[in-house]
């Protein structure tokens, strides 16, 4: 059991300590005789947990006071719709940098609600995919917002710079990268993330939104997506995903206990460097992403001989290395190494890759 490492892209593994804490109080939470998932979200005990989780998240990310933090439903895709409804009128434009399948998905959803315009798209040179840096020009200045995805979970493409957007508010889908490094929240109008990659269990999404962007939702916006209603009600306009919220709170405590995001940042760097060093080593494995844009969280890689894919995956499972199959759009392998993946897991994977190459190279 102890030697199994789960590289799933999402829902993904959670920190071992967090799972033990949750297990210990699963049946009898705070001596109430009930589980946390069996109590009212409006009760004093749950409200304390909810407020503490919000405060811990604010501390971790240094969220300024003029930003709301919302705990809501509908995952990342829910926000693909909530963002245009809250931030744009039907005749307004939204700008999009398309760097992979999720930011592309955001464009098609936004097109239902506004004029979604792609201003830059992932490109390829010498077989390597990279993120272009589109110039900002005056024709873009009256757009309602500028959407991008700093880490593409499926494609394994990440970039750590901000698109040039003038005064147009930046909206970032951080579903698979939030909490992996410190951020300067002030640079963003909205940050959102489905929880199931780097925050907690599925069912919860977190939205961090600047004051001035709240209260502008279109009249027809479903109430559960209206940022103003969510903010006024402390994210309890309707029943929130209480268990996921509680568990996310434990993850935030764990992150603080590890030393916060600058410590986590270094650890993520170290983990990714180990894995990419192995991928780059001999040509037996390879990556099709430009070195500048290789994700630290989701690491897709291919075997030079794809006929060995199935054997690789089979033997990896036998070695306790689970869920390494690449996304169905991409094929090959993908190792997701979010915050919860210990460095030992990456070391075990690298050793397995070396052994597999030795015996099949
Ligand atoms: C997983 C993911 C989504 C979709 O999340 P759901 O919660 O399944 O709606 C959107 N964006 C990114 C970057 C993701 O990784």
TrEMBL record:
The keyword Lipoprotein does not apply. Keywords: Amino-acid biosynthesis, Aminotransferase, Cytoplasm, Pyridoxal phosphate, Pyridoxine biosynthesis, Serine biosynthesis, Transferase. GO terms for molecular function: O-phospho-L-serine:2-oxoglutarate aminotransferase activity. Transmembrane segments: none annotated. It holds the Pfam family Aminotran_5. Residues 4-348 form the Aminotransferase class V domain. It comes from the Bacteria. It is found in: Cytoplasm. Pyridoxal 5'-phosphate binds at residues 76-77, 102, 153, 173, 196, 238-239. InterPro entries: Aminotrans_V_dom, Aminotrans_V_PyrdxlP_BS, Pser_aminoTfrase, PyrdxlP-dep_Trfase, PyrdxlP-dep_Trfase_major, PyrdxlP-dep_Trfase_small. The modification N6-(pyridoxal phosphate)lysine is found at residue 197. Its cofactor is pyridoxal 5'-phosphate. It catalyses: 4-(phosphooxy)-L-threonine + 2-oxoglutarate = (R)-3-hydroxy-2-oxo-4-phosphooxybutanoate + L-glutamate; O-phospho-L-serine + 2-oxoglutarate = 3-phosphooxypyruvate + L-glutamate. Binds 1 pyridoxal phosphate per subunit. PANTHER family: PHOSPHOSERINE AMINOTRANSFERASE. Homodimer. Belongs to the class-V pyridoxal-phosphate-dependent aminotransferase family. SerC subfamily. This is Phosphoserine aminotransferase. It comes from Alteromonas salexigens. The lineage of its organism: Bacteria, Pseudomonadati, Pseudomonadota, Gammaproteobacteria, Alteromonadales.
């Amino acid at each position: 059991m102890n030697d199994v490492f789960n590289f799933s892209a999402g829902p993904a593994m959670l920190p071992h300590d967090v799972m033990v804490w949750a297990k210990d109080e699963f049946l009898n939470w705070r001596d109430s005789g009930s589980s946390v998932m069996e109590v009212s979200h409006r009760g004093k005990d749950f409200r304390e947990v909810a407020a503490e989780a919000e405060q811990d998240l604010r501390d971790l990310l240094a969220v300024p006071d003029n930003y709301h933090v919302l705990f809501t439903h509908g995952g990342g895709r829910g926000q693909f719709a909530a963002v245009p409804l809250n931030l744009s009128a039907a005749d307004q434009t939204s700008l999009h940098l398309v760097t992979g399948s999720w930011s592309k998905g955001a464009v098609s959803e936004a097109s239902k609600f506004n004029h979604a315009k792609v201003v830059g798209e992932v490109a390829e040179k010498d077989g390597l995919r990279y993120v272009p840096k589109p110039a900002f020009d005056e024709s873009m200045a009256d757009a309602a917002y500028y959407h991008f995805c700093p880490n593409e979970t499926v494609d394994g493409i990440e970039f750590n710079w901000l698109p040039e957007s003038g005064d147009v508010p930046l909206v970032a889908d951080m579903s698979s990268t939030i909490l992996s490094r410190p951020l300067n929240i002030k640079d963003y109008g909205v940050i959102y993330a489905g929880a199931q990659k780097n925050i907690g269990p599925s069912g919860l999404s977190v939205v961090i939104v600047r004051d001035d962007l709240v209260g502008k939702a279109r009249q027809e916006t479903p109430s559960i997506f209206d940022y103003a209603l969510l903010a006024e009600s402390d994210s309890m306009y309707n029943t929130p995903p209480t268990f996921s919220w509680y568990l996310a709170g434990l993850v935030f405590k764990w992150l603080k206990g590890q030393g916060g995001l600058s410590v986590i940042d270094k650890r993520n760097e170290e983990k990714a460097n180990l894995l990419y060093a192995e991928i780059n080593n001999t040509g037996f494995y390879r990556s099709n992403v430009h070195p500048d844009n290789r994700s630290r969280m989701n690491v897709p890689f291919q075997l030079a001989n794809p006929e060995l894919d199935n054997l690789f995956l089979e033997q990896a499972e036998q070695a306790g290395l689970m869920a390494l199959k690449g996304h169905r759009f991409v094929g090959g392998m993908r190792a997701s190494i979010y915050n919860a993946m210990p460095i030992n897991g990456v070391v075990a994977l690298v050793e397995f890759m070396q052994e597999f190459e030795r015996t099949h190279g």
